[in-house]
Amino acid sequence: MLLLRRCRSLTRLQRHQAAPCFASRAVRLCSSSTEDQRSHQRANWSANWKRIVAGVLTGTGAVVTYGLLHQEVEQADAGLPTTERSSSLPVFSHDEVTKHRSLEDGVWVTYKGGVYDVTEFVPIHPGGNKILLAAGGALEPFWALYAVHDQEYVLEILSQYKVGELSAEDLKKQGEAKASDPYSSDPERHPVLRINSKKPFNAEPPPEILTESYITPHVLFFKRNHLPVPQVDPASYRLQVEGLPRGALTLSLKDLKTRFPKHTITATMQCAGNRRSDMNQVKEVKGLNWGISAIGNAKWSGARLRDVLLAAGFGPDVAKWARHVHFEGLDKDVTGSAYGTSIPINKAMNEDGDVLLAYEMNGEDIPADHGFPVRVVVPGVVGARNVKWLGRIVVSAEESSSHWQQHDYKGFSPGTDWSKVDHASSPAIQELPVQSAITVPADGAQIDRSDETLTVKGYAWSGGGREVVRVDVSLDGGKTWQVAQLRSGDKGQPDEPSPPPGRSWAWKLWELTAPLPPDADELEIICKAVDNSYNVQPDTIPPIWNLRGLLNNAWHRVKVKVTKD
């Protein structure tokens, strides 16, 4: 997510305007005028949070965009109190804190020895009422899970609710019972990955490595996690299939491997936020700052979803009312809510849809980071629908009600901001648009004039099974164009067979070697792809900019210097 980067300077500015009083609301140590000032200031903050709550992911903490909050905070008349401990605050025992576990009795929490009355913040907490899980106790175990809270500006917001200190004796006990890190069991990752967030882990490979191989090794395949990686015992693993007339069907991993034919497809998977960093350069957006490598191509093997649903009782009668298939993962938050999403029933049941319940990736058991023991692979569709650690499938007349289906992974107009976004007005992203990017040379690279030629490399892909049929490359900022050579295999090896129409799930790697333009000191290299429906990438980002930074498929551009030595 795009974290608030400049709140530190804003809150410092506000502190200079604030009255130097740290008195507790609970014990009324401050003057009435200061209490009025604090109430007014809290009202301002409440209004701010209510206006931006629509843009914050449920359960991921107080994450906000700088632009909107900056605009709102400047209107506040009072500042935040400092975060330093004050001896003027009362001391509370753990038993006293535990008495405040509801809105009726007040919601108190502790954090690093401080006691906070967050009752007024509960209704506007971006993560909803999950904050009540910590009521009467410590925040640390929950903030360990939602590590995005570990930001100074979050502490600044928390500080305004401080009412006292935890007793030294109870603080010592709390330290002895320190919560374990829920991410401690996550698998090891390759050190070459460029990390966008550590907890949960999200990372991508360097672009120049990404296209060295037509099939992306799993260690270099981008990692997109929303929660800690679950530890799943393959022997006790069970997949529930529900919503069909025969009742629930329970399948073990062995059942999936022995009761259903094994199918293998080569399919590219791309995060909806791929190339978000380019959108950030136009105007700041909210989300992980992905480069161009939140995409990968792999061989996936497993049982077809269609076969499993037929075995569970899907038939003509069900087809009359069924419209969606829901997927739920085994990765769950502290409330027990699982990552979930859904796809249209037509994609799930189409014989040419190739939706898999995959248990192998590149000929081996799917690694933990990619969904062991079973994940859904929905080729041609956004990565968010390819649920990992699959635990439950539900056939339904309705779309999934999960946060990730209804309040995220949707596109909006460039004119939509967080103050007026309506998630219900936009459909969930399914198929992705045509895409391409330059992986070699890197932006800012230096090219030796004596080389006389320049080789440009990259990838191209289109969603919905549409095949990329051409990639155009310009070395002079779009004035002239040349056609790149496409390949569907590793260099020097035979290409994979051409897929049937509508089932082109894998990317194309492309390459162009051309003479360096004479007398040019700097080159702007551009690529754009065309698919077999003659969809082509838009030339610039502003017309497709959106507040979440999704679906960026504008022409990819890199600038390089040409040197004479």
TrEMBL record:
The keyword Chaperone does not apply. This is Sulfite oxidase. It catalyses: sulfite + O2 + H2O = sulfate + H2O2. Residues 89-167 form the Cytochrome b5 heme-binding domain. Catalyzes the oxidation of sulfite to sulfate, the terminal reaction in the oxidative degradation of sulfur-containing amino acids. GO terms for biological process: nervous system development; sulfur compound metabolic process. InterPro entries: Cyt_B5-like_heme/steroid-bd, Cyt_B5-like_heme/steroid_sf, Cyt_B5_heme-BS, Ig_E-set, MoCF_OxRdtse_dimer, Mopterin_OxRdtase_euk, OxRdtase_Mopterin-bd_dom, OxRdtase_Mopterin-bd_sf. Its cofactor is heme b; Mo-molybdopterin. It comes from Poecilia mexicana. The lineage of its organism: Eukaryota, Metazoa, Chordata, Craniata, Vertebrata. It holds the Pfam family Cyt-b5. It is found in: Mitochondrion intermembrane space. One of its GO terms (cellular component) is mitochondrial intermembrane space. Its EC number is 1.8.3.1. Pathway: Sulfur metabolism; Energy metabolism; sulfur metabolism.
